[in-house]
Design goal:
Blueprint: H1 2-22, H2 29-36, E1 41-44, E2 50-61, E3 64-72, E4 78-86, E5 89-103, E6 108-114, H3 119-122
Antiparallel strand pairs: 1-2, 2-5, 3-4, 5-6
């Protein structure tokens, strides 16, 4: 039961970034720029469309654990020693890609779709 609940939670969280990105389909790409700043990359594709990319780097750190042990020295006195273990850091780089098409009537690049972010990136959003 616990595994099923965890899996369901992961699936629901996984939709977050995609839902955010889906909300921009049909809008001017400048709306994404207004929300998240300028893209890190623009690529003109062969079919006349254009891809825009945003990068997000996340750093997460787990704190170290303190392990304290108590021993006796040669004279029978208590001696405490504290050792710190752990404290890892992980870096995740996510690339969010929107596909656009030129709309002359609106004089703008309009979002027509996006590339699904990887699972590591899907549990967050662009911000």
């Amino acid at each position: 039961m616990l595994r099923a609940t965890a899996l369901l939670l992961c699936l629901l969280l996984g939709a977050c970034a995609s839902d955010t990105m889906r909300g921009y389909v049909g809008q001017d790409i400048r709306m994404v720029t207004l929300e998240y700043g300028p893209p890190v990359n623009q690529i003109d594709l062969a079919d006349g469309t254009r891809a825009y990319q945003w990068r997000k780097v996340s750093v997460s750190t787990t704190p170290p654990n303190a392990i304290t042990t108590t021993d006796k020295d040669k004279k029978g006195r208590k001696v405490q020693t504290t050792q710190y273990v752990g404290g890892t850091q992980s870096v995740t780089t996510c690339l969010y890609t929107f596909f656009t098409a030129w709309n002359p009537a609106r004089n703008a690049w309009i979002v027509t779709g996006f590339k699904e972010p990887s699972f590591d990136c899907a549990i967050g959003d662009l911000s």
